[in-house]
Amino acid sequence: MVTTDPTQLMERLDKPAAPRRTSLDDSRGYRIFRVVNVVVLLGVVAVTLYPFVNIVAQSFSSELYIRTGQVNLFPRGFNLDTYKLVAADPVFWNSYLNTVIYTVTATAISIVLTTIYAYVLSKHRLKGRNLLIGIAVFTMFFNGGLIPNYVLVSGLGMTNTIWAVVLPNAISVFNLLVMKAFFESLPAELEEAAAIDGLNTYGILLKIVLPLSKAVLATMILFYAVANWNSWFQAFIYFDRSELFPVTVYLRNMIAGASSATAVGAVESNALAISANIKAVTMVLTVLPIVVVYPFIQRYFVSGVMLGAVKQ
Questions:
Q1: Which residues of 158-186 are buried (b: 16+ CB within 10 A; e: fewer)?
Q2: How far is CA 125 from each of CA 78, 120, 121, 147, 204, rounded to the nearest angstrom?
């Protein structure tokens, strides 16, 4: 029987509704899936993290424990000799400064060129668009080779200059295609509205497109920065002056036992004492800046690209 008592009706309205439980939440299969998912992800994290932790532990361990395979997650025979030797060499800090300069310069150039090229390719009305895409994709599979590239760089007078390491690989075609696909996913109505308001092409790119592209820009910056930071081969080929070497070449020479006094310095006389953990120290010093910077960029990977851009 339906009641018309206002008091009872108000009590029913004020009473919170019981949460509805779906059959999916109650199913045993879904609970098993969640448990298996957590276990698998924890396993992936462990497998990924263990090598890095092991390398860090080796960098602080003594030679004997490393050679006998007794170092796992924690250092054995705590040792800072290698770190002290490297830190005491002024050439190391000069190489580190070179790497910072090369990485910042190369990343800035790459981001500007990639963004401009990708934005142009994202416009289907552009004449010759397919040709430009074909030229970019062609370079993913074919290149001139080491000797022609060296002849070209030398002919342009870029050897022993910063341009030899920041210009030849300024645009990554993979990053270009990723950014192009992102620009194509942006609503065309946004740019049309901005054009009606009086913005030209450059204004639309700077004031509309780029503010909505923080996630992809942060990703591209990280990709380029990591690649440029770890790069050593180009500097190894195009530089013959040790004061221009990046830290990766410096550390490469340490590992290889190079005879150059400017690259090895004080490390050469103690090579036998630290030979077991010098590779670990090299890896830690190389990856440290990226590990420090990554947490500040990671949040953009999961942010909503179009959050607040288009409202219903």
A1: bbeebbbbbbeebbbbebbbbbbebbeeb
A2: 64, 10, 9, 39, 16
Of the candidates 272, 285, 231, which has an alpha carbon nearest to the alpha carbon of residue 92?
285
- 297: phi then psi, degrees, rounded to nearest 5: -105, -25
Token pair belonging to 15? 């009473």
Residues 157 and 164: their CA atoms lie apart, in Å, by 9
Q: 239: which residues sit within 8 A by CB, 6+ positions away?
A: 159, 160, 164, 165, 245, 249
Write down the pLDDT at residue 39: 94
CATH architecture of the domain with range 81-301:
Orthogonal Bundle (1.10)
Residue 102 pLDDT > 90, yes or no?
yes
- Token digits for 153? 């760089």
Q: At CB < 8 A and 24+ separation, what contacts does 205-212 make?
A: 205/119, 209/119, 209/183, 210/115, 212/186, 212/305, 212/306, 212/309
Residue type, 127: K
pLDDT band at 110 (very low <50, low <70, confident <90, very high): very high
Please give the Cα distance from 102 to 95 (Å, whole number): 10
Question: Angle at the Cα of 80 (from 50 to 243), degrees rounded to 5?
Answer: 95
Whether the CA torsion 20, 312, 115, 95 is positive or negative: it is negative
CA distances from 70 to 73, 75, 102, 144, 184 (A): 10, 9, 38, 47, 53
Q: Given this model, what pLDDT does residue 7 score? A: 54
How far is residue 185's CA from residue 200's CA, in Å, rounded to a whole number?
20
